[in-house]
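Quick question, first post here. What does this chain look like in 3D?
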Amino acid sequence: MVKFTVEDQDGNRQEVEAPMDMGLSLMEVLKASDYPILATCGGMALCATCHVEILDGPSELGEATDVELDQLENLPEYYPTSRLSCQIRISDELDGAVIKLRGEDVV
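> Answer (accepted):
Ran it through. Tokens below.
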């Protein structure tokens, strides 16, 4: 299991625990944890409605792919640490990370 913290738009933080052995994406875990993630494209990196910002976390999460960057760069709010949660796999690299919800459906 991996543990990371999710911060909502109001600044409230909650620890989330997720299994590493199921091949899940961060988006799938956030949706299953009842966070307001639209993910209208179903995790294909085509809509950016699963936008998150990595506030604190290891650099091992890797760089965003070109496809992911194409979507992120079209957002009204784009940060150097912005990622699409559908493109981040649950792994031990997420352990201890702090992730802020930034999707357009989050108010």
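The CA atoms of residues 5 and 15 lie 4 Å apart.
The mean pLDDT is 90.
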